[in-house]
Design brief:
The protein is mainly beta. A 4-stranded antiparallel beta sheet has the order 3-2-1-36, with no helix packed on it. The chain has a 4-stranded antiparallel beta sheet with strand order 4-5-6-7, with no helix packed on it. A 4-stranded antiparallel beta sheet has the order 8-9-10-11, with no helix packed on it. A hairpin with a 5-residue loop joins strand 32 and strand 33. Helix 2 crosses helix 3 and helix 2 packs antiparallel against helix 4. The protein is elongated and about 110 Å long. The termini are far apart. About 30% of the residues are buried. The N terminus is likely disordered.
Amino acid sequence: MAANVEIQNLPAPPHLAIRASDGVSVKKLVNTSLCDVPNFKKDDSKPSRILEFSSDGKMMAWCNSESINVFDFDSGRRLPSIPREKTNLLSFSPQNKYLVTWEPLIVKRDGPKEKDTLEIWEVETGNCVKGFCIKKRENSSLKWSEDEMICAKCVTNEVHFYEDGNFASFVNKLRLQGVSCIEIAPGPSPYKIAAYVRGTKAAPSYVRLYQYPNFDIPLANKSFFKAEKANILWNKKGTAALILTSTEVDHTGGSYYGEQSLQYISTNGDSNVVILPKKGPIYAIDWNPNSSQFCVVYGYMPAKATIFNLKCESVFDFGTGPRNAAYFNAHGSILCLAGFGNLRGNMEFWDVKRFKEINKLQASDATVFEWCPDGQHFMTATTSPRLREGNGYKIWHYNGNCVHEESVYELWQVSWQPRAEGVFPEVPITTPKNAQKPKAKVEAYRPPSARGTPVTTTKLHEIEPPENQKSRELSASALKNKKKREAKARSKKENESKETGSNMVVETPPAAAPVPATENDKKLRNLRKKLKQIEDLKGQKKAGKKLEKNQEDKINSEESVREELRKLELI
């Protein structure tokens, strides 16, 4: 089903790669329908294990359980295939010169105990340049600089650096006891390296920033405790990084899933802890492409979402809601806050510059969300094996129009073809006329016996509104209080006029000093209070409410209370 909506002002829309049980196909969106891409023939020979685009989208590689195939979109041809059947990971080097593959190590009884599982291939020729025996999947990635001049690989207590495509021997090494993770910052030379070292019982964990190849003096250092694992996320400019730390077990007993924290570090030497006001897990972190802000979704459900600046100060608080994901579009102008997985698929779209909500949509059972490189459209999909029923994908505009929808029997992967920065110009954001409006509040049913009695409500979760709505609520509340004060003053003035006459001027005598309450006054006050409670209970009983025994006894004591009150009033 497709809506009558045309995509305008799009210079050659990016392609959509689809990997399913019936093979690998690539399609392009023309108006409201998907068309086959010229020169790309669908590969339906065997089910594909994996599919990956290059960072600029010019090339695509996939493994169809027989070999690794590479397609060049610029020339429209397939490059030499690579004879690897069990490849589990694929990645292109930044300039598309090399393709890195990894497959699990399978040791046969009569075969060698070790073999190359991580291999580097020349894309144009299909020749293997270098191989390493890497047994664990988490250690199977190589790190590259954007110009491919350096390539880094972690080994035990060291990081080896290869230069200019020479993998025969490493040129430099960074030695750190316990180093387990590194990330090379985006950007040109001089290159920035972030290295994570897991702590021991006697020493904390830490991340250090270096300028390659000067490893003697770090640019910055950030140490922290309770960090068994760490993910390092550089911003697009390569000037700062976020460090998401986690432990397997929360020793305080506060969470079944361990503890998490978020640290900040920059190449100018600054470091900080990102203070998150609400306790709970950190679900998502996303850098704005402008590299000056980042969004964090955190806290026990309903989760909070906040945008921070480079000083780790809150810029805008989106309040709480059913969400566990955050996605900036390619221009950083729209932020999508969504709740997928065990949530209902609610999506909120926000104008980041004005911090104004644009639209609210829902994609039930979605397991995939991905922005189109044009910054206006996005794709949601339901894929296997996460969900085996209702597989398919939808292409939307942020204004809520469904551009294309297609069901697929067994869908494994859907991905937009990436495009280089600047291919799609930023388009002004418009708020749709048909944006979802808040529904009118429907009162809950009350039985006849409960009608006319005070309403008591219990909230399971306290929902916090966004920051701009909080200010509006405060101003409305202040206005309401002001009206109350004015009405009270007006009523008091009218009463005084009635008592003294409109033309009389009465001098107000000075206020007398307060007389301390006697024991008799205290008893009178308590008895009157008890009589008021009895009257309330009698009203509830008349309305049909069943009272407790002590409440019935209180009603029965009314005569004795009145008698005691009369005696005290005569004193």
